[in-house]
Amino acid sequence: MGAQHEQLSELEVWIDQDLCTGDGICAQYAPDVFELDIDGLAYVKPPAPAGEEADLLTEPGAAAPVPLPLLNDVVDSARECPGECIHVRRASDGVEVHGPDAAA
Ligand code: SF4
């Protein structure tokens, strides 16, 4: 009970692995959302129940809901991502709100 991840934002995040440089900046900013897989590229993780580890979504371009408490970290990751390949979009209509395709 009381897991911070139970509170979701209305946003989801996905990574364009074709552009990922594997530097791991996103995994430093938001380790509960981003993780490098054994291929050296970053993938997203869905929120996990308290005390459990989420499975990495290793399908290229897979999207995961963004927990509200981690939204700032995810947005910072998208901003700092050297590959410009972290996309944050509204789950309801798919419009990108942070990332390389977001309206300025
Ligand atoms: S910050 Fe961007 S380029 Fe770096 S590992 Fe994460 S997704 Fe890949």
TrEMBL record:
Obligatory cofactor(s): [4Fe-4S] cluster
Stored Gene3D superfamilies: 3.30.70.20
Chain ranges of the 4Fe-4S ferredoxin-type domain: 11-39
Domain of life (superkingdom): Bacteria
InterPro entries per UniProt: 4Fe4S_Fe-S-bd, ET_Ferredoxin
A Pfam family per the record: Fer4_15
PANTHER family given in the database record: FERREDOXIN (PTHR39163:SF1)
Protein name listed in UniProt: Ferredoxin
